[in-house]
């Protein structure tokens, strides 16, 4: 399986050097934190990020924090020319997978990346089984990008198929249309957020990629038969109060 890496560093010469050393992977580039976050905001198949600490604008740890807020399972390797213990601790607290000092030892970087992807492959195989057909890959793409606007065209590009062909193939193999499947995934994510967070319905709507909360509420009601607020209230009422639990 070919993995995609996003390399975030303000030095173009360094990016070119690292990209050449990681020729077995598809490497995308960003010159600063804002550019990286813009790439991640769109539907994508980025599997790992190599992130520099010292860049113009946002520092690497701030970028890391924002990445993990929206993509908690996306592994990040932090790079820096500043070997201070404080920076290392802050990066690891923000759930960076590893921390390497500049000048980067390329072999050590490659070994770190290989180890992360080996663990990732084992986990994916356990959860999903081997992803050996286009529809399974598209389903995974939708699930990984459920907090963004997911289009048929974007999914088709991700698996190198035409939109029309993917639309027919998806409905044939999944037994449901592409749009309907995306909506089901988003509603399932909304249910989890309603029960496990204190986010408002509007905040959940925006997080799931809907600009108008009313559109999201209508979708939720059509899929579940009730509105989000009622679902949250019912879910909370089903929880047994602590004082009534059996010890």
Automatic annotation (TrEMBL):
<keyword id="KW-0804">Transcription</keyword>
<feature type="modified residue" description="4-aspartylphosphate">
    <location>
        <position position="52"/>
    </location>
</feature>
<protein>
    <recommendedName>
        <fullName>DNA-binding response regulator</fullName>
    </recommendedName>
</protein>
<keyword id="KW-0238">DNA-binding</keyword>
<feature type="domain" description="Response regulatory">
    <location>
        <begin position="4"/>
        <end position="117"/>
    </location>
</feature>
<dbReference type="InterPro" id="IPR001789">
    <property type="entry name" value="Sig_transdc_resp-reg_receiver"/>
</dbReference>
<dbReference type="InterPro" id="IPR020449">
    <property type="entry name" value="Tscrpt_reg_AraC-type_HTH"/>
</dbReference>
<dbReference type="Pfam" id="PF12833">
    <property type="entry name" value="HTH_18"/>
</dbReference>
<dbReference type="InterPro" id="IPR009057">
    <property type="entry name" value="Homeodomain-like_sf"/>
</dbReference>
<dbReference type="GO" id="GO:0000160">
    <property type="term" value="P:phosphorelay signal transduction system"/>
</dbReference>
<dbReference type="Pfam" id="PF00072">
    <property type="entry name" value="Response_reg"/>
</dbReference>
<feature type="compositionally biased region" description="Basic residues">
    <location>
        <begin position="231"/>
        <end position="247"/>
    </location>
</feature>
<dbReference type="InterPro" id="IPR018062">
    <property type="entry name" value="HTH_AraC-typ_CS"/>
</dbReference>
<keyword id="KW-0805">Transcription regulation</keyword>
<feature type="region of interest" description="Disordered">
    <location>
        <begin position="228"/>
        <end position="247"/>
    </location>
</feature>
<dbReference type="InterPro" id="IPR011006">
    <property type="entry name" value="CheY-like_superfamily"/>
</dbReference>
<dbReference type="InterPro" id="IPR018060">
    <property type="entry name" value="HTH_AraC"/>
</dbReference>
<dbReference type="GO" id="GO:0003700">
    <property type="term" value="F:DNA-binding transcription factor activity"/>
</dbReference>
<feature type="domain" description="HTH araC/xylS-type">
    <location>
        <begin position="136"/>
        <end position="234"/>
    </location>
</feature>
<dbReference type="GO" id="GO:0043565">
    <property type="term" value="F:sequence-specific DNA binding"/>
</dbReference>
<keyword id="KW-0597">Phosphoprotein</keyword>
